[in-house]
From TrEMBL, chains A, B:
Entry's family note: Belongs to the glycosyltransferase 47 family.
GO function terms (MF aspect): alpha-1,4-N-acetylgalactosaminyltransferase activity; glucuronyl-galactosyl-proteoglycan 4-alpha-N-acetylglucosaminyltransferase activity; metal ion binding
Compartments where found: Endoplasmic reticulum membrane
Membrane topology classification: Single-pass type II membrane protein
Function: Glycosyltransferase required for the biosynthesis of heparan-sulfate and responsible for the alternating addition of beta-1-4-linked glucuronic acid (GlcA) and alpha-1-4-linked N-acetylglucosamine (GlcNAc) units to nascent heparan sulfate chains.
Broad class of where this protein is predominantly found: endoplasmic reticulum
Protein name: Exostosin-like 2
Keyword Signal part of the UniProt annotation: no
GO term, biological process aspect, one: N-acetylglucosamine metabolic process
Keywords linked to the UniProt accession: Disulfide bond, Glycoprotein, Glycosyltransferase, Manganese, Membrane, Metal-binding, Signal-anchor, Transferase, Transmembrane, Transmembrane helix
Species whose genome carries this gene: Hylia prasina
C-alpha cells in the first residue's frame, strides 16, 4: 500500500523532494570535504618514552639522520668537512648554521660544484650565538640529528655504527666524547674528563655527559630545548659555552637515566690546526673549563637539583676494525 | 514511630534476631578468612617485557644474583672455583648441580671448612644430563642467574661490571662468550665463531648468541624453558649439547631482538687443563661443532623459523682496567 507519501499532490511534491534531497547530499559532501582538508597531519615528533616501535613514516625519515653543523670563522674546514660528511651512509640532509654574521654563505659556490649526494641548507643567523644550532629547524625531516662541531672529523665507519647504536637507544645522546661532573664535600660541583678524580663508584671511571659536538640525538630534544627556563638561554649567551651541558641536563631530566651512551671512536680527528683562518675554537680560551664548572653549578640552581647520572658503559663495534677484537685467551 | 519490627512479639523476637545476626556475622568472617588464606602469593617471576621498574622485593633479591654451576667429573676444579666465586660482590647463593651420579657431594667437607660468605646448595641429580642446570630450582630467590661452566674462571671485576650491565638489559643474556650462526644459499645454517664468514651485514663481525656457560640471565627464562616442545629436550639429551643454543632461541623468540649482549671480558680463563680428573670437557669431542650446527637446524625446524638476530654491540667498562682506555688522539 502507498503511505502518506502518496497522499501528497503527486509529481510536483516528488520533484521538490528530489531537489531538496540532492541539495542536502551535496552540502553534506562539501562539509565532509572541508573537514578532511582541515584534519591536522599526523606527526610523530614526540620524544620516545620507551622502546615503542616508531609509527609508520617514510622509510628514509626513519632510517636516516640530519647533520647539523654550526660554523664560525672556519669556512675552509667547513667545506672540507662537508665534502666528507655529504657522503656518509644514511645521511638525509645537511643543515649548516651560518654564524658568520653579515658574510655571504658559500651557497653559490656549493651549487656550482654540484650535483651533491644530499641537500645542504645554509641557515643564515642574525646574531653569532652558540645556541643557534639548537633551534628547532623546520628543515628537519628525520627523527635523528647528528650534531658535529665544524672542526671535527669522524670516520664514516664510526658514524654508521654510532647511528645503529642510537637506533637502539633513541632517548639518549649517543656520541664520541664523554665527560663527567664530580661533587665535592662542599656541595659545589666540578666539570672535567678522565683526569678528574673518580666519582668513587667502584672500579674504573664514569661519565655523566656526552658532548653534542659529535653525537646523535633525537630531534625531540631540540623541541624540548625551546621550552627551557630563560635563565638557561641567558647562561649560554653569557658564556658562549655550555649549550651541550644544558642539553645533557635536559635529557637526563627527561629520561631519569644517564643522558648519554658513549661509543668509542676508532677514527676521530680535530682539524682546527688545519684552518687558514687562525681561529682556534672556544675551548682554547683560558677560562673555558672553569666556565663549564660554573655552568654545571648554575644549571643545578636553575633546575633545582642535579639530574645527571653516571654510566660506565663503553660501546665498541664487534669485530671492527680488528676482525678478532673480541677474542680472549680462553 | 516504630514500624513492623515493633509489631512482632517484643523481646523473644529481639533475641532471635540478635542471635541470627551474630551467626550471620560470624559466618561472613569465616568466609572472608578462608578467602584470604586462599589468595595466591603475589610473585613477580614474570619475564620483563619492557623496561618497567621491578616491584618491591627484598633489597638483596633485586641487587644480587644466584650462581648456578653444573659439575661433572671435575670436583677439584669445582672446589677451586667455589672458593673464588663465593666471594663475588652481589652474590646471593650458589646452586651446584651435581651430575656425578651415585657419588657423594662434597657437602660435608664444605661445611667443615665454613663459615662461608653465602649459602651453597648441592642439588643431587639422578641422571647425568646437560639440561639439568636448566631446571627451575625452587632455591632461586633472585631475579638474576649467573650461569658458569665448572671450568671457567671470570674475574670479580668482570662479573661485577657484567651484572650491572645485565641490570640495564634484564631481558637479554649478558655474557662473555659470543657465537654466531650463518645462513647459506641452500638454506642450511651453520654454527661458529669469528672464524666463520661474516653474515655480510656491513663492516666488522656480528654475533647472534651469547653462551650461557658464562652469562647472566633472568630466572624467568628457566621457567620458560620448562614450557618448551618435547623435541627440544630430546635434542639436548640426544646430543648432550646445545642447551645454550636452545636458550638463545628461547630468548630471541621472547624478545624479538638479539638474544644476547656481549661484554668483553678482561680476565677470563679456562681451567680445564688444571684438573686432575683427566676429563676435558664436552667441547673436545670431534663432533662438537658439527653437532651444534645440527642443533641450529633442528631448532629452526622445531620452532618453525629462525628467531636469532644479529648484534655487533660490544660492551666494555669505561676507564677499566686502563684508566684512560677511552682516550683518543683528538
Amino acid at each position: 500500500r502507498c503511505f502518506h507519501f502518496c497522499k501528497l499532490p503527486g509529481r510536483v511534491m516528488g520533484i521538490r523532494l528530489l531537489r531538496f534531497t540532492s541539495v542536502v547530499i551535496i552540502v553534506l559532501l562539501l562539509v565532509a570535504g572541508a573537514l578532511t582538508a582541515l584534519l591536522p597531519t599526523i606527526k610523530d615528533d614526540k620524544l620516545p618514552n620507551s622502546r615503542r616501535e616508531p609509527k609508520t613514516q617514510s622509510q628514509s625519515a626513519l632510517d636516516s639522520f640530519t647533520l647539523i653543523m654550526q660554523t664560525y670563522n672556519r669556512t675552509d674546514l667547513l667545506l672540507k668537512l662537508l665534502n666528507h660528511y655529504q657522503a656518509i651512509p644514511h645521511l638525509h640532509k645537511v643543515i649548516v648554521v651560518w654564524n658568520n654574521i653579515g658574510e655571504k654563505t658559500p651557497e653559490e659556490m656549493w651549487n656550482s660544484l654540484g650535483p651533491h649526494p644530499v641537500p645542504v641548507v645554509f641557515k643564515v643567523q642574525t646574531v653569532n650565538r652558540m645556541r643557534n644550532r639548537l633551534q628547532n629547524f623546520p628543515d628537519l625531516e628525520t627523527k635523528a640529528v647528528l650534531m658535529m662541531d665544524d672542526d671535527t672529523l669522524v670516520s664514516a665507519h664510526d658514524l654508521a655504527f654510532a647511528f645503529s647504536v642510537w637506533q637502539q637507544f633513541p632517548e639518549h645522546i649517543v656520541g664520541f666524547v664523554p665527560r663527567k661532573h664530580i661533587s665535592t664535600p662542599s656541595g659545589v660541583y666540578s666539570y672535567g674528563s678522565f683526569e678528574l678524580q673518580n666519582p668513587a663508584l667502584g672500579n674504573g671511571d664514569q661519565y655523566s655527559m656526552v658532548l653534542i659536538g659529535a653525537a646523535f640525538f633525537h630531534r625531540g630534544y631540540l623541541e624540548d630545548f625551546q621550552q627551557q627556563p630563560e635563565a638557561v638561554y641567558a647562561l649560554i649567551d653569557e658564556t658562549q659555552n655550555c649549550d651541550d651541558i644544558a642539553m645533557n641536563f635536559l635529557v637526563a631530566k627527561h629520561t631519569g637515566k644517564p643522558s648519554g651512551v658513549f661509543v668509542k671512536p676508532v677514527d676521530i680527528r680535530n682539524l682546527e690546526k688545519d684552518t687558514n683562518s687562525g681561529y682556534s675554537g672556544m675551548w682554547h680560551r683560558a677560562e673555558h673549563l672553569l666556565q663549564r664548572s660554573y655552568c654545571v653549578n648554575k644549571l643545578v640552581n636553575i633546575y633545582d637539583g642535579m639530574p645527571l647520572k653516571y654510566s660506565n658503559i663503553m660501546i665498541s663495534q664487534f669485530g671492527f676494525p680488528n676482525y678478532a677484537n673480541h677474542k680472549n685467551k680462553m
